[in-house]
Amino acid sequence: MATASKIAAVGVIGAGQMGSGIAQLAAAAGCAVLLLDSDPAALSRAVASISASLRRLVAKGQLSQAACEDSIKRIRCVSRVQELGDVDLVIEAIVEVEDVKKKLFVELDGITKPSAILASNTSSISITRLASATKRPSQVIGMHFFNPPPIMKLIEIIRGADTSEDVFSAVKSFSERIGKTVICSQDYPGFIVNRILMPMINEAFWALYTGVATKEDIDTGMKLGTNHPMGPLQLADFIGLDVCLSVLRVLHNGLGDNKYSPCPLLVQYVDAGRLGKKRGVGVYSYG
Ligand code: CAA
Ligand code: NAD
Fold it and tell me: Do domains 4-185 and 196-278 have the same CATH topology?
């Protein structure tokens, strides 16, 4: 079984907002990183955003130029899951859809070495159910990063029903090695942070939908009234409205309370492809 110090090679699947930041963190911690995405354009965007993010750290004196270049060199983009056969840890950060993630976990189970740990960055989906798609449920775990991963200090770790203590310890130590503070959640829908955050975001959509106030006043209210760095609608755009909707649906289906039922306005934005900042338009438009 891989221990934290033995995690030398990491596979990151999904090179979107989260996967690119996770790849950056693993590379900066000295790991060889294989970054995989089904969309070649996403890989090109990820390489550009990782370079820009590392250069920001150099400009602030938080990273040397040499360490920046070394980190970039440690990341290799790949296009086939079969290339992840030798990694010690896989961190999955693809679309928040259970069936798609399960299919990937089946594939990973078949091609990664027996000792490899399979982690999911899911925002809400049951780790136990993802683990049950594999023949190694004791080596499957939730490793929930926050956006943007290079800046946010938290990782939420979720044990599935069969996750072993060795795997939990290895992932906890690895999370600390990449500079994060760890909290642990039981495997319940939305875990800790999204269980609390997403109802707030949903309520902000209801406030907008029912005409309580303008989007700007809702966001300014929560920024200046509660000292949040972003208002809830701006944050929803930043996270991705598709991700917010998927999480709310998991909360609604899993906890069965109507208070988690997604606001129709959020559903309509996602139906219209207004997914937030990553698509240039969500609640707000981005130049
Ligand atoms: N890489 C490196 N540095 C970065 C960066 C990146 N990707 N993004 C931002 N930064 C740095 C900037 O260089 C800047 O550094 P200095 O203050 O030292 O100059 C600092 O972070 C602040 O950035 P900006 O000035 O560009 O912008 P900002 O002040 O608006 O901060 C923010 C940006 C850190 C994202 C801040 O707005 C924030 O904290 N927003 C809330 C984020 C949040 O709540 N994330 C969690 C979402 S929920 C989630 O992730 C879970 C889920 O499952 C959905
Ligand atoms: P994103 O849309 O930015 O990126 C997802 C990437 O996965 C895309 O580049 C897509 O091409 C790729 N992809 C989709 N299916 C794939 C497959 N089968 N194989 C390989 N690549 C595939 O999404 P994101 O915001 O980075 O979210 C990714 C995951 O991280 C989701 O599970 C989400 O819930 C979770 N998450 C998101 C945030 C956030 O704030 N956005 C925070 C924490 C966790």
Answer: no
pLDDT tens digits, 3-59: 556 899 999 999 999 999 999 999 999 999 999 999 999 999 999 999 999 999 999
> Is residue 175 classed exposed, middle or buried when 0-12, 13-18 and 19+ CB atoms within 10 A define those classes?
buried
Does 15 contact ligand 2 (Cβ within 6 A)?
A: yes
Report the residue count for the chain. 287
Of 17, 84, 107, best ligand 2 pocket probe by most atoms within 8 Å of the beta carbon:
17
What's the 107 CA to ligand 1 centre distance in angstroms? 34
Provide the CATH number for the domain formed by 196-278 in this structure.
1.10.1040.10
Sheet holding 117-120, edge to edge: 75-78, 32-36, 9-13, 89-92, 117-120, 140-145, 154-159, 181-185
How far is the centre of ligand 1, averaged over its atoms, from the C-alpha of 56 (Å)? Answer: 12
What does the CA dihedral 169, 175, 179, 185 come to, rounded to 10 degrees?
-90
**Is 202 marked as binding a ligand?**
no
Q: Using one digit for the tens of pLDDT, what is the confidence trace for 106-152? A: 999 999 999 999 999 999 999 999 999 999 999 999 999 999 999 99
DSSP letter, residue 216: H
Catalytic site includes residue 5: no
Distance in angstroms (rounded) separating the CA atoms of residues 94 and 101: 7
- Taking the model in full, what pTM does it have? 0.96
Compute the distance from residue 286 Cα to the ligand 2 centre, in Å: 20
Predicted-complex ipTM score: 0.95
Cβ 155 vs Cβ 192: under 8 Å: no
Query: Which architecture does CATH list for 4-185?
Result: 3-Layer(aba) Sandwich (3.40)
Domain boundary assignment for the chain? 4-185, 196-278
* Pocket flag, ligand 2, residue 152 (CB < 6 Å): no
CA angle 148, 37, 254 (to 5 degrees): 65
